[in-house]
Specification:
Helices cover 44% and strands 19% of the residues. The protein has 294 residues and is α/β, with parallel strands linked by helices. The strands form 3 sheets. The protein has a 6-stranded parallel β-sheet with strand order 6-11-10-9-8-7. Strands 3-5-1-12 form a 4-stranded antiparallel β-sheet, with helices on one face. The chain is elongated, with a radius of gyration of 23 Å. It starts with a helix and ends with a strand.
Amino acid sequence: MIETGTQIDFRKELEESLPPNTLIERQVRAALAEDLGDGDRTAALLPVGRESRVELISRQHLVVCGGPWFDDVFRQLDSRVRIEWQVAEGERAEQDQILCRLAGSTRALLTGERTALNYLQTLSGTASRARQYADAVAGLQVRLLDTRKTIPGLRLQQKYAVRCGGCYNHRIGLFDAILIKENHILAAGSIAAALEAAFALADGMQVEIEVESLGELSQALDAGATHLLLDNFDLDQLRRAVALVAGKARLEASGGVTLDSVRDIAETGVDDISVGNLTKDVESIDLSMRFVDV
Protein backbone atom coordinates (compact mmCIF):
# COMPACT_ATOMS: atom_id res chain seq x y z
CA MET A 1 0.00 0.00 0.00
CA ILE A 2 1.34 3.44 -0.94
CA GLU A 3 1.34 5.79 2.02
CA THR A 4 -0.53 9.06 1.71
CA GLY A 5 0.99 12.30 2.92
CA THR A 6 -1.14 12.13 6.06
CA GLN A 7 0.06 8.60 6.88
CA ILE A 8 3.67 9.61 6.35
CA ASP A 9 3.19 12.62 8.64
CA PHE A 10 1.64 10.36 11.30
CA ARG A 11 4.58 7.95 11.15
CA LYS A 12 6.98 10.86 11.49
CA GLU A 13 5.05 12.24 14.49
CA LEU A 14 5.19 8.84 16.20
CA GLU A 15 8.93 8.58 15.66
CA GLU A 16 9.42 12.05 17.10
CA SER A 17 7.28 11.34 20.18
CA LEU A 18 8.92 7.98 20.93
CA PRO A 19 11.28 8.14 23.94
CA PRO A 20 14.98 7.61 23.15
CA ASN A 21 16.20 4.02 22.78
CA THR A 22 18.43 4.43 25.82
CA LEU A 23 15.40 5.30 27.96
CA ILE A 24 13.35 2.40 26.57
CA GLU A 25 16.24 0.08 27.41
CA ARG A 26 16.35 1.34 31.01
CA GLN A 27 12.59 1.02 31.40
CA VAL A 28 12.58 -2.53 30.06
CA ARG A 29 15.58 -3.50 32.18
CA ALA A 30 13.72 -2.35 35.31
CA ALA A 31 10.54 -4.17 34.28
CA LEU A 32 12.44 -7.39 33.66
CA ALA A 33 14.28 -7.06 36.96
CA GLU A 34 11.08 -6.92 39.00
CA ASP A 35 9.77 -10.06 37.27
CA LEU A 36 12.97 -12.09 36.96
CA GLY A 37 14.77 -11.39 40.20
CA ASP A 38 17.71 -13.81 40.14
CA GLY A 39 16.24 -16.07 37.46
CA ASP A 40 13.20 -17.73 35.85
CA ARG A 41 12.87 -20.96 37.80
CA THR A 42 10.18 -22.42 35.54
CA ALA A 43 11.85 -21.73 32.18
CA ALA A 44 14.99 -23.36 33.58
CA LEU A 45 13.16 -26.71 33.32
CA LEU A 46 13.56 -26.56 29.52
CA PRO A 47 16.67 -27.53 27.53
CA VAL A 48 18.96 -24.57 26.83
CA GLY A 49 19.07 -25.06 23.08
CA ARG A 50 15.36 -25.58 22.41
CA GLU A 51 13.71 -23.13 20.00
CA SER A 52 10.07 -22.30 19.33
CA ARG A 53 7.81 -20.25 17.11
CA VAL A 54 5.08 -18.07 18.62
CA GLU A 55 2.18 -16.01 17.31
CA LEU A 56 0.85 -12.96 19.11
CA ILE A 57 -2.92 -12.74 18.58
CA SER A 58 -5.40 -9.99 19.41
CA ARG A 59 -8.54 -11.02 21.25
CA GLN A 60 -10.34 -7.75 20.60
CA HIS A 61 -10.21 -4.69 18.34
CA LEU A 62 -7.34 -2.37 19.17
CA VAL A 63 -4.82 0.23 18.11
CA VAL A 64 -1.40 -1.39 18.35
CA CYS A 65 1.05 0.43 20.61
CA GLY A 66 4.11 -0.56 22.61
CA GLY A 67 6.09 -2.43 19.97
CA PRO A 68 9.44 -0.82 20.83
CA TRP A 69 9.15 -1.97 24.47
CA PHE A 70 7.86 -5.41 23.45
CA ASP A 71 10.79 -5.88 21.07
CA ASP A 72 13.35 -4.71 23.60
CA VAL A 73 12.19 -7.24 26.19
CA PHE A 74 13.27 -10.08 23.92
CA ARG A 75 16.35 -8.25 22.65
CA GLN A 76 17.61 -7.97 26.22
CA LEU A 77 16.85 -11.61 27.00
CA ASP A 78 18.27 -13.02 23.78
CA SER A 79 19.18 -10.81 20.83
CA ARG A 80 18.74 -13.78 18.47
CA VAL A 81 14.94 -13.83 18.95
CA ARG A 82 13.34 -12.82 15.64
CA ILE A 83 10.15 -10.71 15.58
CA GLU A 84 8.11 -10.06 12.45
CA TRP A 85 5.32 -7.54 12.94
CA GLN A 86 2.21 -7.94 10.80
CA VAL A 87 0.57 -4.71 12.04
CA ALA A 88 2.47 -1.43 12.29
CA GLU A 89 2.63 0.72 15.42
CA GLY A 90 -0.41 3.01 15.58
CA GLU A 91 -2.51 0.90 13.20
CA ARG A 92 -5.84 -0.68 14.02
CA ALA A 93 -6.12 -4.45 14.33
CA GLU A 94 -9.14 -6.71 14.34
CA GLN A 95 -10.18 -9.38 16.81
CA ASP A 96 -8.27 -12.67 16.34
CA GLN A 97 -5.70 -11.03 14.06
CA ILE A 98 -2.06 -12.06 14.20
CA LEU A 99 -0.08 -9.02 15.33
CA CYS A 100 3.40 -10.49 15.09
CA ARG A 101 5.35 -13.75 14.90
CA LEU A 102 8.35 -14.58 17.06
CA ALA A 103 10.97 -17.28 16.76
CA GLY A 104 13.95 -18.19 18.91
CA SER A 105 14.96 -19.56 22.28
CA THR A 106 12.01 -21.19 24.03
CA ARG A 107 13.39 -20.09 27.38
CA ALA A 108 13.64 -16.44 26.29
CA LEU A 109 10.17 -16.47 24.75
CA LEU A 110 8.62 -17.85 27.94
CA THR A 111 10.61 -15.62 30.27
CA GLY A 112 9.79 -12.44 28.36
CA GLU A 113 6.14 -13.21 27.62
CA ARG A 114 4.51 -11.47 30.59
CA THR A 115 6.70 -8.37 30.66
CA ALA A 116 6.35 -7.89 26.90
CA LEU A 117 2.59 -8.39 27.03
CA ASN A 118 2.21 -6.03 29.99
CA TYR A 119 3.71 -3.23 27.92
CA LEU A 120 1.75 -4.01 24.78
CA GLN A 121 -1.59 -4.58 26.53
CA THR A 122 -1.38 -1.40 28.61
CA LEU A 123 -0.10 0.91 25.90
CA SER A 124 -2.47 -0.50 23.28
CA GLY A 125 -5.27 0.06 25.78
CA THR A 126 -4.23 3.70 26.11
CA ALA A 127 -3.89 4.14 22.34
CA SER A 128 -7.21 2.43 21.65
CA ARG A 129 -9.03 4.70 24.09
CA ALA A 130 -7.35 7.76 22.59
CA ARG A 131 -8.51 6.65 19.13
CA GLN A 132 -12.09 6.37 20.38
CA TYR A 133 -11.95 9.97 21.57
CA ALA A 134 -10.23 11.19 18.39
CA ASP A 135 -12.90 9.52 16.28
CA ALA A 136 -15.63 11.16 18.39
CA VAL A 137 -14.49 14.67 17.36
CA ALA A 138 -13.51 13.85 13.77
CA GLY A 139 -13.97 16.81 11.43
CA LEU A 140 -13.79 19.44 14.18
CA GLN A 141 -10.91 21.87 14.72
CA VAL A 142 -10.07 20.87 18.27
CA ARG A 143 -7.16 19.11 19.99
CA LEU A 144 -7.78 16.43 22.60
CA LEU A 145 -5.05 16.54 25.25
CA ASP A 146 -3.92 14.06 27.85
CA THR A 147 -3.10 15.02 31.45
CA ARG A 148 -0.64 14.04 34.21
CA LYS A 149 -3.13 11.41 35.44
CA THR A 150 -0.93 8.54 34.30
CA ILE A 151 0.08 5.20 35.79
CA PRO A 152 3.13 5.84 38.02
CA GLY A 153 6.31 4.97 36.16
CA LEU A 154 4.56 4.89 32.78
CA ARG A 155 4.26 8.63 32.10
CA LEU A 156 6.31 8.79 28.91
CA GLN A 157 5.03 5.46 27.64
CA GLN A 158 1.39 6.50 28.04
CA LYS A 159 2.02 9.95 26.59
CA TYR A 160 3.49 8.22 23.53
CA ALA A 161 0.47 5.88 23.38
CA VAL A 162 -1.88 8.87 23.36
CA ARG A 163 -0.12 10.08 20.19
CA CYS A 164 -0.45 6.60 18.69
CA GLY A 165 -4.19 6.92 19.22
CA GLY A 166 -4.42 10.27 17.43
CA CYS A 167 -4.67 12.65 20.38
CA TYR A 168 -2.13 15.15 21.74
CA ASN A 169 0.11 15.66 24.75
CA HIS A 170 -0.35 18.37 27.35
CA ARG A 171 2.73 19.13 29.45
CA ILE A 172 4.85 16.11 30.28
CA GLY A 173 5.32 17.06 33.93
CA LEU A 174 5.72 19.99 36.28
CA PHE A 175 8.95 21.07 34.59
CA ASP A 176 8.00 21.89 30.98
CA ALA A 177 5.09 24.33 31.35
CA ILE A 178 3.45 26.52 33.99
CA LEU A 179 -0.16 25.69 34.81
CA ILE A 180 -1.61 27.95 37.51
CA LYS A 181 -4.48 26.25 39.32
CA GLU A 182 -6.87 27.26 42.10
CA ASN A 183 -4.48 26.63 44.97
CA HIS A 184 -1.65 28.49 43.23
CA ILE A 185 -3.96 31.50 42.85
CA LEU A 186 -4.97 31.33 46.52
CA ALA A 187 -1.33 31.11 47.59
CA ALA A 188 -0.31 34.01 45.33
CA GLY A 189 -3.21 36.20 46.48
CA SER A 190 -4.96 36.85 43.17
CA ILE A 191 -5.12 35.87 39.50
CA ALA A 192 -3.15 38.97 38.53
CA ALA A 193 -0.42 38.29 41.10
CA ALA A 194 -0.10 34.65 40.08
CA LEU A 195 0.21 35.56 36.40
CA GLU A 196 2.71 38.32 37.08
CA ALA A 197 4.95 35.91 38.98
CA ALA A 198 4.55 33.24 36.29
CA PHE A 199 5.47 35.58 33.44
CA ALA A 200 8.58 36.66 35.36
CA LEU A 201 9.71 33.04 35.70
CA ALA A 202 8.51 31.56 32.42
CA ASP A 203 11.59 32.25 30.26
CA GLY A 204 9.67 31.39 27.09
CA MET A 205 7.71 28.54 28.68
CA GLN A 206 3.94 28.33 28.13
CA VAL A 207 1.88 29.85 30.96
CA GLU A 208 -1.71 28.65 31.40
CA ILE A 209 -4.16 29.59 34.15
CA GLU A 210 -7.24 27.77 35.37
CA VAL A 211 -10.44 29.80 35.78
CA GLU A 212 -13.73 28.67 37.28
CA SER A 213 -16.10 31.40 36.09
CA LEU A 214 -16.52 34.00 33.37
CA GLY A 215 -15.59 36.65 35.91
CA GLU A 216 -12.26 34.95 36.58
CA LEU A 217 -11.76 34.56 32.85
CA SER A 218 -12.11 38.33 32.41
CA GLN A 219 -9.63 38.96 35.23
CA ALA A 220 -7.12 36.60 33.61
CA LEU A 221 -7.49 38.25 30.21
CA ASP A 222 -6.98 41.68 31.74
CA ALA A 223 -3.80 40.35 33.38
CA GLY A 224 -2.42 39.21 30.04
CA ALA A 225 -3.29 35.50 29.99
CA THR A 226 -2.84 33.82 26.62
CA HIS A 227 -3.84 30.27 27.63
CA LEU A 228 -6.92 29.65 29.75
CA LEU A 229 -8.13 26.39 31.26
CA LEU A 230 -11.91 26.48 31.71
CA ASP A 231 -12.57 24.23 34.69
CA ASN A 232 -15.93 22.43 34.71
CA PHE A 233 -17.70 25.02 32.56
CA ASP A 234 -21.05 23.84 31.25
CA LEU A 235 -21.80 24.05 27.51
CA ASP A 236 -23.46 27.47 27.74
CA GLN A 237 -20.54 28.88 29.75
CA LEU A 238 -18.10 27.45 27.21
CA ARG A 239 -19.93 29.14 24.33
CA ARG A 240 -19.98 32.44 26.21
CA ALA A 241 -16.28 32.10 27.00
CA VAL A 242 -15.45 31.51 23.33
CA ALA A 243 -17.46 34.61 22.37
CA LEU A 244 -15.90 36.72 25.12
CA VAL A 245 -12.33 35.75 24.30
CA ALA A 246 -12.89 36.08 20.53
CA GLY A 247 -9.53 34.53 19.67
CA LYS A 248 -7.44 36.67 22.06
CA ALA A 249 -6.33 33.57 24.02
CA ARG A 250 -6.30 29.81 23.61
CA LEU A 251 -9.13 28.05 25.46
CA GLU A 252 -8.94 24.59 26.99
CA ALA A 253 -12.03 22.88 28.40
CA SER A 254 -11.46 20.47 31.28
CA GLY A 255 -13.32 18.47 33.89
CA GLY A 256 -15.45 15.34 33.66
CA VAL A 257 -15.05 14.87 29.91
CA THR A 258 -16.42 11.56 28.62
CA LEU A 259 -16.90 9.91 25.24
CA ASP A 260 -20.56 10.89 25.41
CA SER A 261 -19.84 14.56 26.06
CA VAL A 262 -16.63 15.29 24.18
CA ARG A 263 -18.18 16.17 20.82
CA ASP A 264 -20.71 18.56 22.36
CA ILE A 265 -17.84 20.28 24.19
CA ALA A 266 -15.79 20.47 21.00
CA GLU A 267 -18.69 22.04 19.11
CA THR A 268 -18.68 25.05 21.47
CA GLY A 269 -15.56 26.28 19.66
CA VAL A 270 -12.88 25.74 22.33
CA ASP A 271 -9.38 25.08 21.04
CA ASP A 272 -8.44 22.19 23.30
CA ILE A 273 -10.10 19.64 25.56
CA SER A 274 -8.07 17.85 28.24
CA VAL A 275 -9.24 14.33 29.05
CA GLY A 276 -7.93 12.55 32.14
CA ASN A 277 -9.78 9.42 31.03
CA LEU A 278 -7.27 8.89 28.20
CA THR A 279 -4.68 7.56 30.65
CA LYS A 280 -6.30 7.30 34.09
CA ASP A 281 -8.80 4.45 33.75
CA VAL A 282 -7.21 2.43 30.98
CA GLU A 283 -8.32 -1.16 30.37
CA SER A 284 -5.60 -3.48 29.13
CA ILE A 285 -6.16 -5.10 25.75
CA ASP A 286 -6.69 -8.88 25.68
CA LEU A 287 -3.76 -10.46 23.82
CA SER A 288 -2.48 -14.02 23.58
CA MET A 289 0.96 -15.43 22.79
CA ARG A 290 0.40 -18.87 21.33
CA PHE A 291 3.19 -21.35 20.78
CA VAL A 292 2.77 -22.96 17.34
CA ASP A 293 6.00 -25.00 17.28
CA VAL A 294 7.82 -26.10 20.44
